UniProtKB/TrEMBL annotation, chain A:
InterPro entries: BRCT_dom, BRCT_dom_sf, PES. Residues 441-452, 459-473 have a biased composition (Acidic residues). It is found in: Nucleus, Nucleolus. This is Pescadillo-like protein. Residues 428-519 are annotated as: Disordered. It comes from Zootermopsis nevadensis. It comes from the Eukaryota. Keywords: Nucleus, Ribosome biogenesis, rRNA processing.
UniProtKB/TrEMBL annotation, chain B:
Pfam families: Nop53 (PF07767). One of its GO terms (biological process) is ribosomal large subunit assembly. It is found in: Nucleus, Nucleolus; Nucleus, Nucleoplasm. Belongs to the NOP53 family. Keywords: Nucleus, Ribosome biogenesis. GO terms for cellular component: nucleolus; nucleoplasm. Residues 260-284, 314-338 are annotated as: Disordered. It comes from Zootermopsis nevadensis (Dampwood termite). GO terms for molecular function: 5S rRNA binding. This is Ribosome biogenesis protein NOP53. Residues 260-274, 319-338 have a biased composition (Basic and acidic residues). May play a role in ribosome biogenesis. It comes from the Eukaryota.
Amino acid sequence: QYESGEGNRYVSRKTALKMLQLSLKDFRKLCILKGIYPREPRNRKRAQKGAPGIKTLYHLKDIQFLMHEPIIWKLRDYKIFAKKMGKARALRDFEAIKRYLENRPHVTLDHIVKERYPSFVDAIRDLDDCLSLLFMFSTFPSLQHVPRDQSALCRRLTIEFLHAVIASQALRNVFVSIKGYYFQAEIKGQKVTWIVPHHFCFAPQSTMEVDFRIMSTFVQFYSVLLGFVNFRLYHLLNLHYPPTFAVLSADATEKTLVDEEAFVSERVAALNVPLFCTGPTVEEEVEMDQFPMIEDQTKLEEVKQEAEKVKKQKTLFKGLKFFINREVPREPVVFTIRCFGGEVSWDKLLFVGAAFDESDESITHQIVDRPHMGKQYISRYYVQPQWIFDSVNACELLPVEKYFLGAVLPPHLSPFIDKTRQLYVTPEERALEDPSLAEINPEDEEESEDEESEKKDEEGESEEEVLRDDEESEKANETELNKKDEIMEKKKKQMSVSMGIVAREDPTEKRHQERQEHKLREKMIKKKHRNLYRSMMKGR
Amino acid sequence: MVSRQESIGVGRIKKRVSKKNKKSWRKYTDIKDVDSFLDEKRLEERLGTPFADRQDHELFQIDKEADEGQKADLVVRLKKPQKPIKCFAILEERSAVPDPIKKRNRVRTPEERKHPLAKKIKADRKEQGILKKKEVIALRNRALAKAKKNNKPKKGEFNADLWEDTDNGNTVDLDVEWLTPTTKYHMLKHTGKLKKKMPDKFLTKPYEIPAVESPHPGMSYNPSYGDHQNLLQEVANKELILIKEEKHLKRVTSKMFSRVTEDEKESMRMKEMSEGLPEAGEDKLKQNLDEGSETDSDYRAINPPAKNIKKTLKKRRNMKEAKKEQIQHKESRSEKKKNSDIYRLKLLNQELEAKDKKLAKLREKRERVKAIKEKEPKQLSKRKFEPLDLEFNLGEDLKGNLRSVKPEGNILEDRYKSFQRRNIIEPTIKQRTRRAKVKRYERKSHKMGWETKGY
């Protein structure tokens, strides 16, 4: 019993620990590093071999796979090292402590990263989690189970990644929420979304809700992953890794640099400096393929328009010069502006790397978040930071008037299209996308044509289902736009697909009918068979 | 010159030759040494002044560069001088009276104990640079360890492109397709390019939902009215569900019991506890009689003791026969029924169809439930997954500008719960590790009698 099937496919956690001869902490660390997850069986009683209750189960094959992992030896070495250190510390043997610390065992995760992500695109798919965690950890001080250098490493890696996104102009959407800043970039065709926390005062993390040891293990693995991803991204963009910038000789000779590394790293962290290129910058010009055979003209149009929008978005802030005031959060705004080709600077006393001063005459926009501003220059616009984020989401420079100092801002809408919420389009959103929707003039053909095409673009994805059903009719209408067809089209737009009513058959009615039919057929039996039939029915 | 047979070395027998004539004299004389001497002299003349006459500085150069490697090898690590050992301190002289024998306990130091000849040989060897084999091995190992330490990869350094071979098109080209699999395996293994492929099972993720879910539009720091209301509605709905549950629980538990005041409760308790106890100031006989009759009438056997009544053989036989008859009766009835079942075919068909339909419906339902369950977090351990509350800002908190945004929600917690939701880690709580209470005591032999504490 329990020898075959589900019975021998799963092992409990205790059995796994015995097989691997590891402690629970080491086992959990190993599972996280290798990507082994606990499973839920279809029938718990069979999987647990008749034991009652709910146990944590793992696939037997997973554990057998783990047994050949060389990292297990490193974990055991670390345990021995910890024991020796503890003894030396208790005996106050400082020589021994120093000696052990010099030969401390290190865990290398390169082969595991390669194992779990055989190709680069696989690694990019998993970057969401990785980035959010690392951005969070870069804001931490050293906590109980978080090593001291992890926070610095996270900060370094995240900044390198931001530079890579800037250089490849991969950012597509920004959303500012109460939780943090949501960024969405497109790398190698994959959409990567991550959250950056608000930079307010540090809120102490409670260990009661979150297990820091586990999160630290995740961060360890993800930092290695991000390091390699950065390396490859930089090489694909022909940038030198680790990032450096061409230091002007005048600057270097002026002051005696105390620590050149710190100098470089600080300026890199400022996100304001273009990085040192090893080769010509790679411009990815992906040509749109022509598919004349496919009937889906509308979808093709959509995709083409999307591509054009993206292209336009890349040079959104080109030629514009921004100055960020002190109360505006520096990093996300600088990152967003730089991604779209703008030049930006800030107050010299705030952070390193300020390129130009507030009094520079060529500044086109100054980003302010206060209700009033002391000295105002005429040659520049004073806008609130939401203008930048909304412009990025709309892929064009929005009119600045709505975002002036002290103005009541229009709502900051989410650019993420969520399939479960798409059916509800707020009236504000509709008004935003189609400002002239309220005043459609049926006589003005061209205007309405533009509107419809615009509508198709912007609401194209959200009303995909609607469009798919009305495709045929719309296609016909596209070719000849008369007044009549226009009105028809408008009507069809208001048509919607709704759930059909299921035709229910009444069982009693059915039975009644059947009985009647049966009686009719009985009447039709031939005379000579009637007696026999009667006797048969009697026996029932 | 020709040597005589007596003074010949082993194995060489030189024949004696006569040097009578000039010819034989010229042939058999050996003038090699003279020739070589003269050759050297002429060579020296050709090169300039003869070597013997040259100055030191023309022939030799003093090497002024520091030779690091060599010096480091020969430096001996001195041991730290030991501090005087505390436990021997008592053996030292502590009185003012000096010992008549000045060097009473003097022993030779290890240095003095060594034989001078042995010391001299060692010093000579050291001077000449001759090392013992174990020292040679030790030096070699030290060099290796140093090199290894220098080559060790540093923690934050990323030097290699991990995906170079898979993504740069360094795959097997088409030309090789005609080779048999065994050949390919052999070739790859011996050129070191054999890569183990991970089974697809390990590369699939245990979750369907995206890692970072798109936020509710009402969570924006400056949301539109409709979106914000939506979000508040969702939050309110969740709260309502919780309130409803709480109410229901209250209704079926606490409200079922009637409320009593403290005094009433006290009196009831006294009454209950004093049941059956004799009360002061009553006729005891009367009580006993009453109690006796009451107890007699009250006594009912609820669970009387089991009596061991044996069944007689006759009874057993009868029971067996009755049972047999029952079974037979059943069988005959079922046989008879089988005969008439032919006429019930239609009904049977109907029944089967009904069953099929029911099963189909059940199957559909199960599939639907399965689809929903896939999206939900799986039950991986004893603890149930507890989702976080939605983050929202009330109307008065929405200030409309970035400077006065009121941040809600902790990203770390959110990520932690997201891992649990995606079945990557199982929900756990922090285990309280209870430290063992160590008992301290002092040995009886060491006790002095003035301790206040136990130890």
